[in-house]
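Record format v2
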Amino acid sequence: MAKPPVRKPKKKICIFCKDKDLEIDYKDTVLLRKYISDRGKIRARRVTGNCSQHQRDVAVAVKNSREVALLPYTSTAR
Amino acid sequence: MRHYEVMVILDPQLDERTVAPSLDNLLGVVKQQSGSIEKVEVWGRRRLSYEINKHVEGIYAVVDVICEPATIAELDRQLSLNETVLRIKVMRRDPGTTVRRGAA
């Protein structure tokens, strides 16, 4: 019987914890784009690998950014 | 006195050259009520991620202001009444409150 291969989850380090100078700003769309899917949804923490504090900051920044139309609420890709 | 960052989206039909003077005009209250304008950054015309009042573009400007909370409330009110302003967003930028706490 073929056993499903055991996947070792790779421990990701939160990039904001690693780089203290990296600021999460709602105006920085280039950075925030990395944390939304192509449909405009915020990526989950298990995908981004952020720690809970920074994931929350990212989420708040994305939401603020949406309010000023820098990021989409929804984008109709497909 | 507190440090605020105000993002303003103006009507794209406005002439690019008249943006700076009209912004000055809009920010008149701050000076009247003894606040100070630290920085005015005009980003220029940008595509909006979604339509606002049927506009697909907007003229973005970011203004750093130091003033009393009452002044910023008045500024917010005046801007929201102005028809050339599509959207405004006021954020606190105090050094004491970090960006992440202040952003909420």
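DSSP finds four helices and four strands in chain B.
The first strand of chain B starts at residue 2 and ends at 10.
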